[in-house]
Amino acid sequence: MPSKKCFTLLELMLVIAIISVVAGINLPYFKNQLDKFRIEDFVRRLYLFFDHAKTYAVFYSLNTKIEIEDNKEITITKKQDEEFKPIEERFRRISLLKNMVIEAKDSEPVLFYPDGTCGEFSWDIVYRGKKLYTIKSLGFDGKFEIEKYKSR
User: Which pTM does this prediction carry?
Assistant: First the structure.
């Protein structure tokens, strides 16, 4: 009788079924991790966005403004000829993630001045109805911070 040198179709189907069950069980975990990475990336980009607006104001000696447009994207504009116009750089807007909302404590836009200071602001970053982060100014010294809320 010849020796068995390969897998049978039944053995291969059983291995595929086991892998499918394990993947199905872990799929929600991977989706949650992916959402977490996307949110953390957005928050990092938002922090850099604020820093960019401040740097732009100081470098070009112009007032800059960050505002939320229709809760879909955040833009930087500059004050030129007594009105605010979009800046010409590539990094002038970022889009919010799906199911994300920014709740501003004050409906006024955030202003950065040529001396490096900024107006007071506090924005809550809400994802799927859950407040995750707050980005806020620490007064008129031009510094801002991000506060992360504990997930339950």
Answer: 0.78
Please tell me what DSSP assigns to residue 68.
Answer: E
CATH topology of domain 10-148: minor pseudopilin epsh fold (3.55.40)
Of 56, 45, 46, the C-alpha closest to 87 is 56
Task: Record the tokens describing residue 46, joined without a space.
Answer: 């938002």
pLDDT along the chain (152 residues), means of 10: 76 92 88 90 90 91 90 88 85 86 84 89 90 84 84 56
- pLDDT of 15 reads 93
Rounded distance between C-alpha atoms, residue 54 and residue 87, angstroms: 13
Segments in the chain forming alpha helices (H):
9-60
Residue for token pair 């010849």: 2
**What ranges do the domains of the chain cover?**
10-148
Q: Which of 87, 29, 30 is nearest to 54 (CA)?
A: 87
Do the Cβ atoms of 45 and 38 come closer than 8 Å? no
Residue 86, Cα to own-chain centre: how many angstroms? 21
Report, in this order, helix, strand and coil percent for the chain, each rounded to 5: 35, 30, 35
Give CA torsion, residues 95, 139, 104, 109, to 10 deg.
Answer: -60
